[in-house]
Automatic annotation (TrEMBL):
Top-level EC class as recorded in UniProt: hydrolase
Top-level division of the source organism's lineage: Eukaryota
Annotated active site: E314
Residues noted as binding Zn(2+) in the record, renumbered to the chain: H313, H317, E336
The protein's name: Aminopeptidase
Cofactor detail note: Binds 1 zinc ion per subunit.
Annotated ranges, domain Peptidase M1 membrane alanine aminopeptidase: 241-359
UniProt cross-references to SUPFAM superfamilies, sorted A to Z: Leukotriene A4 hydrolase N-terminal domain (SSF63737), Metalloproteases ('zincins'), catalytic domain (SSF55486)
Residues annotated as transmembrane: 12-33
Length: 799
């Protein structure tokens, strides 16, 4: 059993030391200039009485604005020292905490002089709660809710050096962003003081502290890579995989960025309680256990794939995001977008045999600025400068759908919207037109690239004669969707059915994905017909696209009479594929080289495959002996099927296995499988468990409700449960939790009737916008989606 104290960035963080000791924080401030000070002269006649706080919306005071004034810039932070206030500094007149904007406002008697350095000493005592926010405690069997505050200039662009010291129990280890240099036992008291090297100049949101009884393994290399986790997990070798890949990925990014890794060490730590999947704190990356720990005996291929992509993503941030940082949060998309792109490159370097990763990305290479620069090779002409081309993509919202009419050769573009009737309020300076590079082929022959630079244009070569077809966005190298006239669609469909390999694999996935996304407002029949050729498809990417899109339909129709027909159809389509993998995996005893394919294949919503008998056999054996090893790739399905087929006895057995699970990935499989039961009272009891952190960890509560809601019997129960306990969930997760916004969409996923829609709208009305937090946008979106589904349902004859 592990215990630990973590601090993670997200909102803010600066300096904090722990335990029962009061804290002292010192900031060094430099007064850059005093432009704003005249506006801020004290308005308080008496320093001893509380000031009257202005209303945030109308006030012009700096502490009511979310952006920090630029009159001060932080230089460095020190922690755990005694106050030492300069006599020449103006005295503090009054101070208060402005809750709305989270400012500590300190008003001075006089004015600080421009260009001078001042030191500000503050003391504060924070409580370590288990609320997964800021500096929090993660322990078994604990409870208590209190928010804490941290004092710092919390804007990404306001970088400073941090001198950090942590005081902690003897048997624990302290970690922070920089290397620990001194670890002294304080005389007379049984506590340790760990001092860290001054950090590089860095943003406050990337600061992290961890005090734990964890242990680690390390690589013998210059990068100082260490993998930290619970003792048991490390002893079981669950950190080995992460250790093997971390250093190669760091080396890859050094070459890719042509810049050395900026720090002297790189700690990766797996936390049993963590709100997001991982966080890129500079030098001390924090992960959920499932994103870092891998046990080859119990974890599936998909778990391994997730680890390598998450580790690669976070390490990419060590440069892009941490070394080079956005000035303000409105450019965060750039940070995340870029890391999400290069994570595949790092993962591909670490696991070169997983060619699925490489295949899925190949197309993107030509679509980034670097790709455009490279394309300046002789023979390729750009219509505008790279700067101008990129501006039309990054300075306006969304992306286009390009429609090609092969009868006339007309090519046109418009803003792609899932709901075409939606009104776009925001004006675009580019008039919702993009500079679209269109790579394309005609009946299997690659053609010259075309640039679509206006709303529509005639491109003669795209006018085809009989039997010819056009396929645009070859290898999906552009960021847009494609639609065609029906005749061309028909020809593409017949090409897929007669010889699908003429069409590149990524484009087969694209055809499925585009038709399904266009189908939401155009042609459902066409979309469903694209799945017919899957009988012959053995590649991962098209199947992934098909299953992801079909899942939406399954959820929509699994309570209607067409469900049976859909299942029968998909069972027929997937059968050859299943047999193929059965053969190449020697009847499921070895792992096929195409990573995670099997995971995806069998976790699709088909419960009537012949092999489900095999699953039950497996589970029976497992039940009797507990020693029979089920292949990790099959476990999710086996567990779910067995619990769905069984009653309370099977459920309780599954629950015991969940509680005993020492590998996080295994625990997730069981937690998800427990939601498969068809017994309502078991589902209701399971829902209740999500409010008890001793049973379901707080980080897992909302996703557990999501699992229950994805079960057709559990869905109405989950909806009632969430509404009845909304205050509890909102208080706990409403602000700052990434998973919370999914809660509403999870519990209303099957909603499609006008009655259900009115229920959702009622719920939305009953809880004023302020009480939705990060769920409010999601609620709006669900209302729109349900309206759309109403339209779709009327069209079920398409099946
Ligand atoms: Zn990221």
């Amino acid at each position: 059993m592990g215990k630990g104290y973590y601090i993670s960035k997200h909102l803010a963080t600066a300096a904090m030391v722990l335990a029962a000791i009061a804290l002292v924080t010192i900031f060094a401030l430099s007064v850059v200039y005093n432009r704003e000070k005249s506006k801020n002269t004290a308005k308080f006649s008496n320093a001893t009485t509380s000031p009257v706080f202005p209303t945030p919306k109308t006030s012009n005071e700096p502490w009511d604005k979310y952006r920090l004034p630029d009159t001060l810039s932080p230089q460095y932070y020190n922690v755990t020292l005694w106050p030492h206030l300069s006599v020449t500094a103006p005295a503090i007149k009054t101070s208060w905490f402005q809750t709305e904007t989270q400012y500590l406002v300190i008003q001075l008697e006089g004015k600080p002089k421009p260009g001078k350095d001042y030191w500000l000493y503050t003391e504060f005592t924070g409580e370590l709660a288990d609320d997964l926010e800021g500096f929090y405690r993660s322990e078994y069997m604990e409870d208590g809710e209190k928010k804490k505050a941290f004092l710092c200039f919390d804007e990404p662009g306001m970088k400073a050096v941090f001198h950090i010291t942590l005081i902690h129990d003897l048997e624990t280890t302290a970690l922070s962003n920089s290397q620990e240099i001194k670890n002294v036992i304080i005389d007379g008291t049984a506590i340790t003081r760990t001092i860290f090297r001054p950090t590089k100049r860095m943003s406050t949101y990337l600061i992290a502290f961890v005090v734990s009884d964890f242990t680690h393994i390390n690589a013998k290399d210059k990068k100082g890579v260490r993998i930290w986790a619970r003792k048991r997990a490390i002893e079981d070798g669950q950190g080995d995989y992460a250790l093997n890949i971390t250093q190669p990925i760091l080396e890859f990014f050094e070459k890719y960025y042509n810049t050395s890794y900026p720090l002297s060490k790189s700690d990766q730590i797996a936390l049993p309680d963590f709100n997001s999947g991982a966080m890129e704190n500079w030098g001390l990356v924090t992960y959920r256990e499932t994103a870092l720990l891998y046990d080859p005996r119990t974890s599936a291929n998909g778990n391994k794939q997730r680890i390598v992509t998450v580790v690669s993503h976070e390490l990419a941030h060590m440069w892009f995001g941490n070394l080079v940082t956005v000035k303000w949060w409105n450019d965060l998309w750039l940070n995340e977008g870029f890391a999400s792109y290069v994570e595949y490159l790092g993962a591909d370097y670490a696991e070169p045999t997983w060619n699925t990763v490489r295949t899925s990305l190949r197309g993107f290479f030509t679509n980034v600025p670097g790709g455009l620069e490279r394309s300046k090779t002789p023979g390729v002409k750009l219509p505008y400068s790279v700067h101008e081309i990129m501006n039309c993509w990054i300075l306006q919202m969304g992306f286009p759908v390009v429609t090609i009419d092969t009868r006339t050769g007309n090519v046109s573009q418009k803003h792609f919207l899932l709901e075409p009737e939606a009104v776009v309020d925001r004006k675009s300076e580019f008039n919702n037109e993009w500079c679209v590079p269109i790579k394309w082929m005609k009946k299997g022959q690659v053609q010259d690239q075309l640039w679509l630079l206006q709303k529509s244009a005639i491109h003669k070569p795209m006018k085809v004669s009989k039997n010819e077809w056009v396929l645009a966005n070859l290898h999906v190298s552009g960021y847009f969707r494609v639609n065609y006239d029906l005749v061309n669609w028909e020809r593409l469909l017949s090409q897929l059915e007669s010889n699908h390999q003429v069409i590149p694999v990524v484009n087969r996935a694209q055809i499925l994905d585009d038709t399904f996304n266009l189908a939401r407002w155009e042609n459902i029949t066409l979309a469903l017909r694209t799945t017919k050729y899957l009988l012959h498809e053995q590649e991962y990417i098209p199947w992934e696209a098909a299953l992801r899109n079909l899942n939406y339909f399954f959820q929509l129709f699994d309570h209607s009479e067409v469900y049976d027909a859909m299942q029968a159809y998909l069972k027929k389509q997937v059968k050859p594929l299943f047999e193929y993998f059965g053969t190449i995996s020697s009847n499921w005893t070895t792992v096929p080289s195409v990573i995670s394919f099997v995971d995806n294949c069998i976790s699709c919503p088909i419960s009537n495959l012949e092999i489900s008998n095999l699953y039950h056999q497996f589970f029976k054996m497992l039940y009797c002996t507990i020693r029979v090893v089920i292949h990790p790739n099959l476990r999710s399905t086996v567990y779910c099927d067995a619990i769905a087929a069984g009653g309370a006895e099977e459920w309780n057995f599954g629950w015991q296995m969940f509680q005993k699970a020492t590998v996080a990935a295994e625990a997730v499989k069981l937690r998800s499988a427990l939601a498969c039961t068809k017994v309502p009272w078991l589902l209701n009891r399971y829902l209740e468990y999500t409010m008890n952190p001793e049973k379901i960890r707080k980080q897992d509560a909302t996703s557990t409700i999501g699992y229950i809601a994805s079960n057709i019997i559990g869905q109405p129960l989950a909806w009632d449960f969430v509404r009845a306990n909304w205050d509890y969930f909102f208080q706990l997760y409403g602000t700052g939790s990434f998973t919370f916004s999914r809660l509403i969409s999870d519990v209303t996923n099957r909603f499609c009737t006008p009655f259900e829609l009115s229920q959702l709208k009622r719920f939305q009305k009953d809880n004023a916008e302020t009480r939705f937090g990060s769920g409010s946008l999601c609620c709006e979106i669900r209302v729109i989606q349900i309206l759309l589904q109403n339209v779709l349902l009327k069209d079920t004859t398409a099946l």
